[in-house]
## 1
Amino acid sequence: FYQYESSGAGSGFIISEDGYIVTNYHVIDGANSIKVTLNNGESYDATLIGGEELNDVAVLKVNGVTGLKPVVLGDSDSLVVGETVSTIGNALGSYSFSQTSGTVSATGRSVTMSDGTVMNMIQTDCTINNGNSGGPLVDQYGRVVGITSAKLSNNGSTSSSEATIEGMGFAIPINDVIDIITDYMQYGYVTGRPSMGIMVASITEQYQSTFGWPP
């Protein structure tokens, strides 16, 4: 038989001195192993602490590392159209620490993702390439205000009936997911969410005779 292995690359940012890292859920979804490379070039194995597809956010933990320099978080609710922002990430999976700048084009933009999920997004004209997913969107003071997550694309079509899409990138507002991130860091799961459990079982003759079903 044939065994196929593949790998992918994305971006992330350090949120604590002891090695917690934030990225997009779709960056690590389905991964059997995760490796994090820091800005000094050193690579470490990372553990997935928690994540969710709905909000496209995940928290990783690099063990055995201390004294890291975390990012400074900003207030995404205070962003205004026209404000200068920048992205930093692993563009194309090969060009680490690539930085692009632009402006906030819109806030509170409803964007339908490829799986049909509708997310609240910051729209920016910063250049975003494959590999930038999970990286920080920072304001003019270097504070993280969003998580770079998506860009619109027409798959490179150059037909006259379909215009080329440029300068439409999107980031998850940090205020929308910071409580989720801190819950994963503190508890390993998101608190305060109601849940309902349903158990499905086959109705056997023994079950019917024991519980008198059907009535």
Note: The two ends are 53 Å apart (CA to CA).
## 2
Amino acid sequence: AIEDVRDKTQVIEVGPRSYLIRMPIVNAAFFETDEGIVLVDTGMAPAGPAILEAIRSVSDKPIHTIIYTHGHVDHAYGTWAVIEAGETPHIIAHDLLKPRFERYIRLRGSLARYMSQPEDQLPASEADLVWPTRYFSDRLELEIGGETFVLQHHKGETDDQLYVWVPGRNALASADYYQGFLPNAGNGKRVERDVESWARGLRDMAALEPALLLPAHGEAIADPARIRDELSALATALEAIVE
């Protein structure tokens, strides 16, 4: 699986010192700063080495901070490769990620059946995950390398989800709030999502007027008008469901 991800991974420079790592199923994003790398998400567990190699292909700066946008297995499980390489990043997530990780360990067999995955591919103990070193509840502003990174929480696909706004680069890492289609809001195979909060998050993101959208799934968008239209259209659709 590690080699498969390596073969299918590419790193794309989407702006000055700003990158999107395209992998099967999911993306990661990272920003090079004067103080080090800020990495948003670490993919699935087998993706860890490919992500580290993608970063090292363009920068030799230390990995300063890792941000988990939420605790799904395709977003927060590749960190082990960064740690094994000797990096010592700050790892930041929302408060609700911790009980999510704990629930995944406790309900390992149930989760495997729910996700149609082999049980041995899911964490069996706390040692199988790399846990955050810092949590926050609503909004967190970080100053790294002279730049501001804003972490904003809104319940959406998960209760622990957040987006990352980098105002100095007019760039938005949108996690799973935006995926380019009407999302699954919940059914017999998916947890029911907080559609009202999800729509509010999309409205907030559109109001930032980003020039660069880095989604966790799909291609980057560098057209400000299209970004605004896409986020607003999805918010309108979710609000219609609520009504």
Note: DSSP finds seven helices and twelve strands in the chain.
